[in-house]
Amino acid sequence: MPALDLLKTNSPECWFQSSASLLEAVVRSSEDAIITKNLKGIITSWNPGAERIFGYSEGEIIGSSILTLIPDDLRSEEDTILRKIQSGERIDHYETVRINKKGERLDVSVTISPLKDSSGKVIGASKVLRNVTERKNLERSVLQAEKIAATGKMAATIAHEINNPLESVLNLIYLAKTNASDPDQVVTFLNSAESELVRVSHIAKQTLGYYREHSAAISLALSELVRETLAIYEPKLTVSGIHIQTRFDCSAKITLRKGEMMQVISNLVTNAVHAMPSGGTITASVQEATDAGRPGLLMSIEDTGEGISPDSIESIFEPFFTTRNSIGTGIGLWVSKQFVVGHKGRIEVQSSVDPISHGTKMSIFLPFDNPYARELAKSDPL
Question: Disulfide engineering: 172 pairs with which of 12, 17, 193, 377, CB 3.0-4.6 Å?
Answer without folding.
Answer: 193
